[in-house]
Write a structure and sequence with these properties.
heterodimer, A: 331 residues, alpha/beta, 11-stranded mixed beta sheet, 14 helices, globular, B: 524 residues, mainly alpha, 77% helix
Chain lengths: 331, 524
């Protein structure tokens, strides 16, 4: 029994990337785990790209996008990653500062984003807006702004910890972008409404689905999941007058990659309609190009009038200060 | 002058202790070295974090011990069908991932939970479980049950002669507790208190999920933020050192105090008729424990009953296979290392040697799993090892290290007790360590061995910290699969996986101690 287990353990260790055919070039892509999961975009993207590149695509999943970046930073120049997929605009500044990323060589001028995109290293592949999600049957009149939220009696919300999670950081940036110097005051008035500051998006969203709060900080695209996967039309994003902070997910090529050309081919392909069609109903974010058909579940989503996004160098420089400002406002 | 046999028992334990200590220092040094240059110099308000977490951990410890003693006492006084299953259920609580416990608690006591749904027609509602109360409550679920599971064998194992004497003296229920039970329980309490305090002090997902806001946090949260958000490895090492230093202050008294072991041999069959009120009180305590501590775990299992879809996923079965293999590996490693340390401690005569032997094992109670993972990652990278392929082994080693403190604290009292009773005899018969083990120890500690294996298995099953850097497409465990499902709206899948993990833990805690108790006694 034990010997069999040890053998199984050895097999498990030895199989994996090493066992693949040696003559094909390999493309190693670090990403976050739900991107690479069976139901995420990873497997479909892998199959579609492998069909045309004559290469092997390996997705290596870490627990979060920030985890993927940290792993590359720890590995430095000897990283086996050719590409990171899934960094978002709150960490691109930091990622750029590491000096580990090469120019992508991908023309992003034709992409359809609510804001102008001009970034030499990072290629956007999907995007969304942060928003508070609510259940329309339980909250018939959701607040229409942070001020309305803060003034609402007995309204409870769930947010994520900005020190541990990107949507949590997204809320800090959202309030900062909308209110500037008055951000601390908004936070101060908001804290009494906060049920808890969950360690990450998944915990917050699960608590929301269990009915612990009226609203949860998530994305404007979240209702699409409930429409498509559960045929549940009762979830909606509350449009806020201040505008909504954007999250753009990007991919970048590592300077240390021996397969830069192949990596660039992948990124170029990632923003074609063929690859983009896969994204919306697997990653629940907007595609970066116009697709011939609106993805299922995306027809009735709110479209904010005012997209907000702070420059990434400012985010990198000031994120700590803004996080502390938000957290200290609780006292 | 130490006997040859004592030396032979001291050496393996000494090696494990030295290895464990060296590894810990190496991991921290690796991180510190990599931090050179990337130091932001930012430090969170440590004094405040310490103040907040001390209050929280202090309350968690006091209540866990009170409830733990009460529950152990109640179980000892009652016999009923399903008693063993209930005890296994209790033990499994400790190793349940914090997030799962938090979710279970909310399923029962939350705004839309079972209790409020029941009360709603009457216009009543229980107050929210978030904040200090929620944190302490969740810790009690984990730790009171753990305390009860560790204390119960001490009561169940009271020497028959003492019980007979007590019975013939017509002791009242209170005097029976004070003169017979309490002296058996008390020696275990300081060590138990230290462990529970540390667990609560370093708690991470529970504190964040139920904490209600940034006012409630722990050093562990700050360490996580330093590594993940700021990538300030220097700060992470400094914070980890603060945590280790504080923990050391707690560990020293806990390990230096001589552990008085439970006497072997079950005496539960000995009848002691007591007033009916005693059985009623015991029943009441167990019902309350079931409602307040057991129900949230039942909610986890009930919440996961829609597991049909998960069972059809190949990735789920791969994760299950990995978790089982890693869990068994970690359990065996924890057992071997734990036996080495415990057996050396039983041979060590002076308290300083005893401390030196077990402190390195206990330190892993306070080692943040994110720094453990980071240290291993950097070490593997420096050695040029492929982090993708060694991840499997790191999971086993880390799982064993995290379970080691429990292995040592379970095995040491048992082996020390055996040494006290049979040590001289064994020495006079010139038994070799192997003979001592086979003839004397093994037949008496089967139950503890099963318990240690169960703990080792379940700890690695519930790990989320170590896998965070080493997980990959080819290496995923049940807990990382649960996290992955949670991260993609698939809450039903996550609920199903956590229910299956909990059921597996309970099964292991019920079965292993009994199996090994039978196995070990079969030879005598």
């Amino acid at each position: 029994m034990i010997r069999n287990l040890v053998l199984a353990a050895l097999l498990l260790t030895l199989s994996g990337p090493a066992a693949l055919a040696a003559d094909k070039p390999e493309l190693t892509i670090y990403t976050y785990d739900s991107f690479a999961a069976d139901w995420g975009p990873g497997p479909q993207l892998k199959a579609a790209f492998e069909a045309k590149c004559g290469c092997t695509v390996n997705f290596v999943a870490t627990d979060s996008s920030i985890g993927a970046l940290r792993r590359v930073q720890l590995e430095g120049k000897s990283t086996s990653a050719d590409i990171i997929v899934g960094l978002d605009t709150s960490v691109t500044g930091q990622a750029r500062a590491t000096g580990l990323f090469a120019e992508s060589g991908v023309d992003t001028s034709g992409l359809n984003l609510p804001i102008a995109w001009d970034d030499k290293e990072f290629v956007p592949f999907d995007w969304g807006y942060f928003a508070f999600i609510y259940n329309t049957t339980k909250l018939p009149e959701p607040p229409t702004s942070f001020e309305a939220l803060n003034a609402a009696k007995d309204l409870k919300i769930l947010i994520e910890d900005p020190r541990a999670d990107t949507p949590g950081l997204g809320l800090v940036l959202w309030i900062k972008a909308a209110y500037g110097d008055k951000a601390a005051g908004v936070w101060k008035a908001m804290w009494p409404h906060v049920v808890t500051m969950a360690p990450d998006w998944s915990a917050a969203y699960s608590l929301f689905l269990k009915g612990e709060a009226d609203m949860v900080l998530s994305y404007t695209t979240s209702p699409a999941y409930h429409i498509v996967a559960d045929n549940d039309l009762n979830y909606a994003a509350a449009p806020f007058e201040e505008g909504h902070y954007m999250q753009v997910e990007v991919a970048g090529v590592l300077k240390s990659s021996p397969n830069k050309e192949l990596a660039q081919q992948f990124l170029t392909w990632l923003v074609t309609p063929e690859a983009q069609t896969i994204i919306p109903d697997t990653n629940w974010m907007y595609p970066v190009v116009d697709l011939p058909e609106t993805p299922a579940g995306f027809e009735d989503l709110i479209v904010p009038d005012t997209p907000l996004l702070l420059p990434d160098d400012e985010v990198t420089a000031k994120a700590d200060e803004w996080i502390n400002e938000a957290l200290d406002a609780q006292h | 002058m130490l006997s040859r046999s004592a030396v032979q028992r001291l050496v393996p334990g000494g090696l494990v202790a030295a290895g464990g200590g060296t590894l810990l220092v190496t991991l921290l040094v690796l991180i510190a070295v990599s931090a050179a240059g990337g130091d932001s110099g930012r430090m969170p308000d440590i004094a405040r974090i310490l103040y907040v977490s001390s209050i929280q951990a202090g309350l968690s410890t006091i209540f866990s011990l009170i409830f733990g003693v009460a529950i152990a006492w109640a179980f000892n006084r009652l016999s009923f069908p399903g008693r063993n299953l209930s005890v296994g259920f209790l033990s499994a609580a400790l190793v349940t991932p914090g997030l799962v416990v938090a979710f279970g608690l909310i399923s029962v006591w939350g705004r839309a939970g079972w209790v409020n749904t029941l009360l709603a027609p009457f216009g009543l509602a229980v107050p929210p479980v978030f904040g200090l109360f929620g944190i302490v409550y969740a810790h009690i679920i984990l730790d009171a049950t753990f305390a009860a599971a560790l204390l119960l064998p001490r009561l169940d194992g009271l020497a028959a002669t003492r019980l007979r004497l007590g019975r013939s003296l017509n002791l009242t229920p209170w005097l029976r507790f004070r003169t017979l039970d309490w002296p058996a329980l008390r020696p275990a309490l300081p060590g138990l208190a230290a462990i529970i305090f540390l667990l609560s002090f370093t708690s991470f997902p529970i504190v964040l999920t139920l904490g209600g806001g940034p006012a409630n946090q722990t050093l562990e949260v700050a360490i996580y933020a330093a590594v993940r958000l700021d990538f300030d490895l220097g700060a992470a090492v400094r914070l980890a050192l603060v945590q280790l230093a504080i923990s050391a202050v707690l560990i020293i008294p806990a390990t230096a105090l001589s552990l008085v072991p439970p006497a072997g041999g079950g005496t539960r069959a000995l009848p002691w008729p007591e007033p009916r009120g005693v059985a009623r009180l015991a029943g009441l305590i167990l019902i309350a424990a079931g409602l307040f501590l057991g129900l949230p775990l039942v909610a986890v299992i009930v919440g996961g009953t829609g597991f049909g879809e998960v069972l059809g996923q190949q990735s789920f079965w791969n994760a299950t296979a990995t978790s089982l293999i890693v869990g068994i590996g970690a359990a065996l490693a924890a057992l071997v290392a734990g036996l080495a340390v415990a057996s050396a401690r039983s041979a060590a005569r002076n308290p300083i040697a005893g401390f030196a032997l077990s402190a390195p094992a206990y330190v892993y109670l306070a080692m943040p799993s994110v720094t453990l993972s980071l240290g291993f990652f950097l070490g593997a990278h420096r050695l040029g090892l492929n982090t993708g392929t060694i991840g499997f082994w790191v999971l086993i080693i880390a799982g064993a290290l995290l379970a080691l403190p429990y292995a040592v604290s379970t095995l040491t009292p048992a082996l020390t007790g055996i040494e006290g009773r049979y040590g001289r005899l064994a020495t006079s018969l010139r038994l070799s360590p192997l003979q001592r083990w086979r003839l004397i120890a093994w037949p008496l500690i089967g139950r503890e061995i099963g318990l240690v294996l169960a703990m080792g298995f379940c700890f690695s099953l519930g790990d989320l910290g170590v896998i965070s850097l080493f997980g990959s497409e080819n290496l995923s465990t049940l807990s990382s699969a649960m996290n992955r499902a949670l991260g993609a709206y698939r809450t039903d899948d996550a609920a199903a996986i956590s229910a299956l993990m909990l059921i597996l833990s309970i099964a292991v805690f019920v079965a292993l101690p009994r199996i090994f108790e039978r196995l070990s006694r079969a030879g005598t």
